[in-house]
């Protein structure tokens, strides 16, 4: 890093000098410096009052509360949330599986399948839907983002339409996996 910076500085020095001096070693040149003013200039009372009045008349910058919520906002936020939920649950289960022999937990596949089979049907479907929906949502939205990487469907109308199609597809996919 230091060698690169020294090389860049030398190139700048050589480039800044007239052509006749370019044959002289770069170390003999002085570096151009621009000094910044560091002096504090106190304002008078009338200047402060003028500044306060100007600040009161300035327009307020746009804030999130004045915009109409769009499907793209929700889709982007939910894509991040489902990604974190999927990755987090994967890592938590993996860590629990590694610690299970030390703590006496029984979270091997056979034990979990036996316990899950004893649940009522509505609980099974609900848990399967809760597990399947983030997966299908994140997968379908990932395909949507992949199409954007190839510049397909980048018009505003298409983005909104694919957002709603993605929501419906992920819901139907989760229902299919749950039932």
Automatic annotation (TrEMBL):
Transmembrane parts of this sequence: 81-100, 112-139, 159-178
GO biological process entries: mitochondrial electron transport, succinate to ubiquinone; tricarboxylic acid cycle
Topology with respect to the bilayer: Multi-pass membrane protein
Pfam family, one: Sdh_cyt
Gene Ontology CC terms: membrane; mitochondrion
Domain of life: Eukaryota
Gene3D superfamilies, per the entry: Fumarate reductase/succinate dehydrogenase, transmembrane subunit
A GO term for molecular function: metal ion binding
Main location: membrane
Subcellular location field: Membrane
Keywords: Heme, Iron, Membrane, Metal-binding, Transmembrane, Transmembrane helix
Protein's UniProt name: Cytochrome b560 subunit of succinate dehydrogenase
Originating species: Patellaria atrata CBS 101060
């Amino acid at each position: 890093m230091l060698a690169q910076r020294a090389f860049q500085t030398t190139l700048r020095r050589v480039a800044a000098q007239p052509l006749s001096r370019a044959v002289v070693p770069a170390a003999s040149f002085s570096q151009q410096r621009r000094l910044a003013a560091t002096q504090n200039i106190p304002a008078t009372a009338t200047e402060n009052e003028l500044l306060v009045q100007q600040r009161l008349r300035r327009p307020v910058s746009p804030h999130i509360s004045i915009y109409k919520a769009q499907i793209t906002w929700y889709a982007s936020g939910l894509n991040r949330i489902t990604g974190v939920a999927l990755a987090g649950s994967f890592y938590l289960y993996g860590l629990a599986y590694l610690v299970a022999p030390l703590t006496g937990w029984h979270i091997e596949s056979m034990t979990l399948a036996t316990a899950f089979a004893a649940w009522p049907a509505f609980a099974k479907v609900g848990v399967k839907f809760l597990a399947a929906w983030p997966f299908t949502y994140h997968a379908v939205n990932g395909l949507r983002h992949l199409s954007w990487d190839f510049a397909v469907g980048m018009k505003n109308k298409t983005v909104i339409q694919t957002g709603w199609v993605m929501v419906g597809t992920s819901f139907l996919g989760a229902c299919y996996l749950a039932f």
